[in-house]
Structure formats: C-alpha cells, structure tokens
Amino acid sequence: MARTTGSHSDITGPRVRAAALKLFAQDGYAAVSMRAIAAEVGVQAGALYNYTPDKQTLLFDLMQGHMDVLLAQMPQGDGQEPLEALKAFVTFHLQYHAGRPDEVFIAYMELRNLSDENFARIEALRRSYEDRLEHILQAGRAAGLFRIHDTKIVALAIIAMLTGVNTWFRAGGRLSLDEVVAQYWDMVRNAVGAGELPR
Amino acid sequence: MARTTGSHSDITGPRVRAAALKLFAQDGYAAVSMRAIAAEVGVQAGALYNYTPDKQTLLFDLMQGHMDVLLAQMPQGDGQEPLEALKAFVTFHLQYHAGRPDEVFIAYMELRNLSDENFARIEALRRSYEDRLEHILQAGRAAGLFRIHDTKIVALAIIAMLTGVNTWFRAGGRLSLDEVVAQYWDMVRNAVGAGELPR
Amino acid sequence: MARTTGSHSDITGPRVRAAALKLFAQDGYAAVSMRAIAAEVGVQAGALYNYTPDKQTLLFDLMQGHMDVLLAQMPQGDGQEPLEALKAFVTFHLQYHAGRPDEVFIAYMELRNLSDENFARIEALRRSYEDRLEHILQAGRAAGLFRIHDTKIVALAIIAMLTGVNTWFRAGGRLSLDEVVAQYWDMVRNAVGAGELPR
Amino acid sequence: MARTTGSHSDITGPRVRAAALKLFAQDGYAAVSMRAIAAEVGVQAGALYNYTPDKQTLLFDLMQGHMDVLLAQMPQGDGQEPLEALKAFVTFHLQYHAGRPDEVFIAYMELRNLSDENFARIEALRRSYEDRLEHILQAGRAAGLFRIHDTKIVALAIIAMLTGVNTWFRAGGRLSLDEVVAQYWDMVRNAVGAGELPR
DNA sequence: AATGAATGAGTTTTCATTCAT
DNA sequence: AATGAATGAAAACTCATTCAT
C-alpha cells in the first residue's frame, strides 16, 4: 500500500529538491544516492522518479533555479553611477549568497558533475552574471573613476573574493552580515582604485 | 600467470600518484574508480594496492604532499617590511598555484572526501598557511601601513581572490603570469589600503 | 530495465534463507558467495540485500532461528523423574537433529565465522541448552540414580555423542531412527551409571 | 635483496606448516590467506611456494601428517583383552588429542575444503582408525563382555564423545587430563555395558 | 503517487599464484 | 631461497533505474 493520508503530489516535489539540495551540499553529488534523498523525504527511491527523470536532471534543476533567481534579483543598475552600481553589486552578492549557502556551494562544486549539455547552459548563465559586473567596471574605468587594467580579471577577482565569504560566514557568528558587507565594500572599492577620495 | 610486461618497481609508485592527481582533478575523487587510475598507469587495479593501502589514503597523500611543499616553499618574510612581505606572499601564491593547478584544485574541492581524521590534518596545514598571511597583515596594520579592520577576514578574502585565478588562468593564454601577478598585486595593495602612495 | 519475471515478494525471503542454509551446510560459509546463493534462488546477487543487510546477518539469523526453535521445542521435564527426563532429552535431541541436518551442521561448524557480538548471542543460547541437560543430571545424581562425578563434563560428553550421529545418520539408511534412538539411549543410560536395572 | 643471514631452507619449511596449522585452526582454511601465513613466518607470500605447490596441498599435508602419526602411535592391542584394549584406546585418544588441539580441530573442520581426491585419502585413514576401535568392540561383544548391538554405531558414538573433549578441555584448567581420562573411561565402560562389575 | 522487488552494471578490495631478479 | 611487482579472477556490496501493483 502507498500513502496513508491524502495526496502529497504538490508538496513532495519541492521536498525532493530540498532534500537533494541539502544532501548534495553536505556530501557531494556523487556521494549522495537516490535512496538517501528518498530517505530524507520519507519515501522509497522509486517515488523520486515521479518528480525528476533522473539524478542528473535533479542536480541541473537546482543549479539552474539558483542562477535564474540570482540573475532575476540582481540590481539592474540602470542610470546608476558606476561606484553606486558597484556597491549595489557587492552588497547584493554578499547578501544573496549568505542566505543560500547550499545553492552557492553546489553551484561552484558540482559543475563537473553536469553533463556536457547541462554544463554549457549553466556556464552561459554564470558568464552573464560576470558580464554585468564587468560592464560596471568598464563604465567606471571609462568615467575615470576606477584605476584598473583588465576589467575581466578584476571582475573575476572580485567575485572570487566575495564568494569566498561563504566558506566561513555563518549567520549569528562573530560578525554581522552588515559588518562583513562594510569590510568587503572597503576592500573592493580600494581594489578598483576608488578608495581614497571618500575618506 | 603473472604480469605480461617487465617490472617497473621504482617507477610505478610515482605514476600511480600522478595518475590519481590528474584524474581526481579532472573528474573528482568520487567519480574516479581505482580501475580508471590503474588503466591510466597501464596496470591492473589490484597492482595499485602495492602502492597505497586504499583510495582514501591516495587522496590524503596527494593533499598532504601539496600542503607540505606549499608551506616549505612559501617566503618566510623574516625581517621584511610588511608591504614587501605582502608582495612576496602574493607573488609566491600566484606563481606556486599557477604551476600546480591540479594539486590546488584537489586541495580545495576534495576536502569533504577526506575521512574525519585526514580532514583535521589537512585543515591544520591550511590554517597554518592562512596564519602566515594574517601575521603580515597584523604587522602592516600595527605599523600604520594597512588600513584594515579584521585581519582574519582580509586574509581569507585575499587568499580567495588569489586562488580564484586558477579557475581561468592558463599558461600561454592571453595574459602572461607576470601580468597577472602585477594586476593582482595592484588589487591587493589597494584592498589593504596601501595603494595611494605609488600614484 | 528491471526484473524479467514476475514479482515474488513474499516468497523470496524464505527462499534466500533456504538457499543459504543448504549452501552453507554443503560448502561452508566462507566458500559460499552471495552470487551462489542468488543463483540458487534464481535472482541477481543485489536482490539478496532486500532480505538481509549482509552475509554475516544471514548466517546469524539461520543459527539463531535454529537455536530458538530447539529451545522452544525441547522437553521441559517439569515434574518428571530424572531417568524419564534424560530419556526424553536424548530422544528429542536425536529426533530434532536428525530432521534438521543442515541447521545442526552449521550451528556447530560456522561458530567461528560469526562476529564477536553474534557469537556471544549464539553461545548464550547453546549454553542454555546444555544447562537444561545438566540440571537433569544433577537431579539424577542427587536422587542417587546416576553415578557420575562432574555433571558439566557428562552433559558435554552426552551432547557430543548424540550430535555425532548427524555425521553418518541418513533417513532411509540401514538403521531406522527409532533403532538409533534405542541404541543411543542404552549407551547414555549406561554411561550415567543407570543401566543395570533393566538387565 | 633477500635473506639477511644464512640459508634457512631446512627450517622455513616446518615453520610454514606450523604457521598454516595455527592459522587454519584459528580462523579456518578459507579465511586464511597465503599472505597471512607468510607474515606469520616472516617472509613474503611468494616464498611459500618453495615449500608447497599450493594452498590446498598445504592443508592436505597437515591433515595427512596428523592421521599418519595418529595411526602409527595408537595402541596395537595385540593379544590384549578387549576391556584393556578399549581402555588403552580411550586413554590414547584423549591424551593424543589433548596434546594436538589444532591438528584435531583442522582434521574435523576442514574436511570439506579438501579436493575430492585428497578427501578420499583422508577419509580412508580416518576409517582405518574407526575400524580399529570397532574390532575391539567386536572382540568384546564376542567374548560376552560388552553388551552392545551395532559395533559401528558404538564406535562412532565413542569417538564423537571423546573428540568432543577438545571443544572445552584446556591444559591447566579446572580438571587435569588424568581426571578427564578417568571420567570418560567410566562413561565409555558403562556405555558398552561393561561398567557394573569392577565397582 | 507510492511501494517494493528486481536488475545489471558498477564499486573497492582481496587473493592465489607467477616470475624476473 | 626469497623478494616484490604484477595478474586475473573473484569477493561483498551499492546504486540508478524500472515496473507491476
């Protein structure tokens, strides 16, 4: 016999993704079995296939969902000054990532477990995110505000630095998120050569 | 019958580690089978166990070897000025990491595939590396040279930024390693608030 | 694709235990592979793990089941005279063991293939069985009916003698089970020094 | 490089057999690897093959050696009275077996790990031993001394009882070997119906 | 929508044995 | 006589996936 109560079809799907997210982040895609995900949800392994065609797609959907929301919520920066836009980007990146450590971790760690086709799609989304930062940097350099050479490198360096926060930041820890944002904004502003004036 | 080819006693051990290094970096520890490593070496899977007690130890040895050399070769900075010491650290980190992309990748990606005991040992080595950078930052702040708040955070941010280079830098690519070093040194010097003088 | 034949959910479990029983008795626990058990059942090796967590538990369950039934079915001897109780014990032991040669063989031969924990549990059951015989011997000695010194030794000697029957007795062979019982009862009665009366 | 001292060829052979004897008795033939035997001897696995063609022969040689010595040393009973001969047999069996627990254990437990051919040879030796006891019983019955029906069964029952001692007897334990011999001789003499007179 | 039984291919590891040295 | 490197086959067990119910 199956379920003991009414139908859960509309709630099991999200729970499957939540379980996969948690376990993939904790143990890695390869180390998590479909049985383990099923156990976390409280169903048998076979039931998962009502919600995902296979394990690979489950991973891809988590990563794509994360990137879609990231791109949708990031500040658009239309008509903003470059320094303001950069500050908005840094603030958003840190706040968004601090609130979704599992998604972020998976997005960086499990890229190589994507099929070639899925990898290409996620890479395109990621590049689109990097490009928006690079545009800000280019605008700032054109306006003589940022003293930097290679905007691509600086964009990557900034993102690496900001994303590194997730390896140690924990809500409720020694530092508040606002303090972290303040310190990183200091470092970024300085790194692009726009740090001395506002003091 | 026994092996079909000649004996390679003193050369197989290093080849096993080299094959594991390459494949772990390429596909991830969990996705690489002992058979795959053996095939890369040109030997049957059982023969690997003449050189490592198990797969876990193979991973640990690679990571420990990497960290040992990293710590042994990093600049000691005795009697150097903080700014010089920081520059030496940045230069060393970029050059050392650029030359060993596989070791670096594994050291950051496969931490969670270590057993608890092995993880603790590698973590201790990693912390020791971070501590040396933090000491430089503390000295620079004490001397009034660096304008930074939390030396721990800045140390982690710098290392994250520098290590991020490995995700895109390839020898022989658009930028030479020296150019990369110059740009990152600019950014780091600025990030710690020591960037205005040379202008 | 999944299984090629129909589902046998409620019948496969017992068949797994029956196959293991037969093969363990025939070839020894260590010499029987899970594949061999699966082949006997007519499934793939992996399917066995729907019915037992591992090979060790399969062995333990067979031995524990045997001992449980042995203890449940053995004569309780409440209020019986020692000589009657001893005769009931001998008769029961021979009849029970003659009907379950495989279980008996495994119970004596595979003790050392049990894990420490499982061994302790089986040993406790076995000791409980020996104790019941020893109680009969103690009662008989106290009543002046049995001329024996060490009841522990005599109990072990009787059980060894009786169990030895299984090395050669086959139903339908030269001797009927009743004849075997009669002869062994003669020997046991004599061995405890209660044999002279019937002459 | 090989041995560090002079040649051990004439001493390693016996040590190999001693190591195999000990380990087979302790863990069972199937559970003992050639590497384990080699380690016990202090040599690499390959070296064992200078002393035995294979693992199966190692087992067979141990069992055959045991049976050969058993048959050579057992009392011949020429011209002895049946009761004396029986007592001599019982005494010899207990004493011989008490002094060689490992050989005895292997001889009973590892029969099924012999190849068919080797099994037949060992069985022949074993039957020869049983026959000698049966001859004593037949002579005793013919002389009207033993009141028994089936000499084959009684022979097997006596051997089973006596051999069972090895499951619990330990030199230096609660009972001396002489006490054990005395008690078992009591039981055997009674069991064959020759027990009441000498009291 | 979910179960539970099953598959077939895979995993790491062990092992008896061989053989050039 | 012994080593150490290697083989090829096998072990126990896991896993993603399928499917009748």
What do these coordinates show?
Four copies of one chain form a homotetramer. Chain A is elongated. Chain A has 199 residues and is mainly α. Helix content of chain A is 65%, strand content 0%. Chain A starts with 8 loop residues before the first helix and ends in an 8-residue tail after the last helix. Chain A has two domains: 9-52, Orthogonal Bundle (Arc Repressor Mutant, subunit A), CATH 1.10.10; 58-191, Tetracycline Repressor, domain 2 (Orthogonal Bundle). In chain A, helix 3 runs parallel beside helix 6 (116-142). Chains in contact: A-B, C-D. The C-D interface holds C 26-28, 30-31, 109, 112-113, 148-150, 153-154, 156-161, 163-165, 167-168, 175, 180, 183-184, 186-188, 190-193, 195-196, 199 and D 27-31, 109, 112-113, 147-150, 153-154, 156-161, 163-165, 167-168, 175, 180, 183-184, 186-188, 190-193, 195-196. Chain C binds a DNA duplex (21 and 21 nucleotides) through residues 1-9, 12, 33-35, 43-50, 54-55.
Helix-strand sequence of chain A: HHHHHHHH
CATH class descriptor name of the largest domain in chain A: Mainly Alpha
Question: At CATH's second level, what is the architecture of the largest domain in chain A?
Answer: Orthogonal Bundle
User: Largest interface here, residues on each chain?
Assistant: C-D, 38 and 38 residues
Number of strands of chain A: 0
Radius of gyration of chain A: 20 Å
- Assembly category: homotetramer
Summarize the entry for a quick read.
With 199 residues, chain A is mainly α. Chain A has helices spanning 9-27, 34-41, 55-73, 82-99, 101-109, 116-142, 151-164, 177-191. The first copy, chain A, has two domains: 9-52, Arc Repressor Mutant, subunit A (Orthogonal Bundle); 58-191, Tetracycline Repressor, domain 2, CATH 1.10.357.10.
